[in-house]
UniProtKB/TrEMBL annotation:
Entry protein name: Histone-lysine n-methyltransferase setmar-like protein
Domain of life: Eukaryota
GO MF annotation terms: nucleic acid binding
Length: 90
């Protein structure tokens, strides 16, 4: 479907009503994590820091699989940090 020339309201309708998606502020996502998940993230981060401390070239061998966990920039507004999710998303 070619969306060039469609009004923003039509595109918004397609995304929200037809695709059943909504925007969620990325800053709020970390609050959804359980205490167990937060503990696991902390433990993993500390382990990575220990590896890096003992071998500074360690980061050259790290492969990430989900870059959405880290923002590559600091969003200036909530709107810039929002992401689209389906209504069934966790």
């Amino acid at each position: 479907m070619d969306m060039e020339g469609l009004p923003k309201t039509a595109i918004h309708y397609i995304i929200t009503e037809k695709l059943k998606m909504c925007k969620i502020c990325a800053k709020l996502l970390s609050k959804v994590l359980t205490h167990e998940h937060k503990g696991l993230r902390l433990a993993n981060s500390q382990e990575m820091l220990n590896h890096f401390t003992s071998d500074p070239s360690f980061l050259k061998r790290v492969v990430t699989r989900n870059e959405s966990l880290m923002l590559q920039y600091d969003p200036e507004t909530k709107r810039q940090g929002a992401e689209w999710y389906t209504r069934n998303s966790p």
